[in-house]
């Protein structure tokens, strides 16, 4: 059965050219009417497409017209319908971030990769780490900290020396960024149901911003992070190149 396809693309020349070529070969519809969204670009644009189409809950099949392409399939013009029929799904649930600023304003955002707290000035951040209403670290002096999903564990989390988490493992990574105190703390692996609160101490002297994927909130005093069980996105991957296999392979790269 032929699927109704919506083609979306980043602004890069390669992605726009690919979109034009594919739309000449295959009928296309608006994303709100599609059975599947085909996203053309790099990993950054793939995340953007996920956020834009999350409300429709339409499966997304990415093809790489960027650089790394960790979340995308190889770009090919031939046999698109056959590839879509054979594609294997990966269902991702996002983190929900509720960030409260020093003005008392709360903002909510979703993150499929990670929620990061980052220092805004030359001075290190001073954070209190609370897990399920229990204070685990009263003072974490650092450049920041992040909470990562399994899908995002090979991105910023890995660069910050956090663990790689298999898809379906049911856990999250809490990883410090350049921790000064406690000096030897390398982070923690938490169950997916954990409710994480990062409180910003000395927030006027040591201001901190919170970032959920690409959504930034500045001058935060408290950030609550948990998995949103009501939201999800379905990504499609070619057989043998699914997200679970890609994340597993990352653990064996020298």
Q: Could you characterize what this model shows?
A:
Strands 6-5-16-13-8-9 form a 6-stranded antiparallel sheet, with no helix packed on it. A 6-stranded antiparallel sheet has the order 12-11-10-7-14-15, with no helix packed on it. Strands 1-2-3-17-4 form a 5-stranded mixed sheet, with helices on both faces. The protein folds into 2 domains: 5-92 and 232-250, 3-Layer(aba) Sandwich (Rossmann fold); 95-227, Probable inorganic polyphosphate/atp-NAD kinase, domain 2 (Tumour Suppressor Smad4, Sandwich), CATH 2.60.200. The protein is elongated, with a radius of gyration of 19 Å. A hairpin with a 2-residue loop joins β8 and β9. It has helices spanning 13-25, 43-53, 80-86, 156-159, 243-250, and strands at residues 5-9, 36-41, 60-64, 88-92, 95-101, 106-111, 114-119, 125-131, 134-142, 144-148, 171-177, 188-191, 196-201, 208-212, 215-217, 220-227, 233-237. It is of the alpha+beta class. It starts with a strand and ends with a helix. It has 5 helices and 17 strands. Helix content is 17%, strand content 39%. The model has no long low-confidence stretch (mean pLDDT 94).
């Amino acid at each position: 059965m032929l699927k109704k396809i919506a083609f979306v693309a980043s602004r890069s020349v390669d992605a726009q050219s690919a979109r034009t070529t594919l739309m000449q070969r295959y009928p296309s519809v608006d994303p709100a009417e599609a059975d599947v969204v085909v996203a053309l670009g790099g990993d950054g644009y793939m995340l953007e497409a996920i956020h834009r189409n999350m409300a429709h809950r339409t499966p997304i099949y990415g093809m790489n017209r960027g650089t790394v392409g960790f979340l995308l399939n190889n770009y090919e013009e031939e046999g698109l319908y056959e590839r879509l029929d054979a594609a294997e799904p990966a269902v991702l649930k996002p983190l929900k971030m509720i960030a409260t600023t020093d003005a008392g304003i709360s903002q909510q955002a979703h993150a499929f990769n990670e929620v990061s707290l980052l220092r805004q000035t030359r001075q290190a951040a001073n954070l209190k780490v609370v897990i399920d209403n229990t204070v685990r670290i009263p003072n974490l002096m650092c450049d920041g900290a992040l909470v990562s999903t399994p899908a995002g564990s090979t991105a910023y989390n890995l660069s910050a020396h956090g663990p790689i988490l298999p898809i379906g493992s049911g856990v999250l990574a809490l990883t410090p960024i350049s921790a000064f105190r406690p000096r030897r703390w390398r982070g923690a692996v938490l169950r997916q149901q954990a409710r994480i609160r990062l409180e910003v101490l000395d927030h006027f002297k040591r201001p901190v911003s919170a970032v959920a994927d690409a959504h930034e909130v500045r001058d935060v005093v408290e950030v609550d992070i948990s998995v949103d069980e009501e939201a999800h996105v379905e990504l499609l991957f070619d057989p043998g190149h699914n997200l679970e296999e890609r994340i597993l392979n990352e653990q064996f790269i020298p």
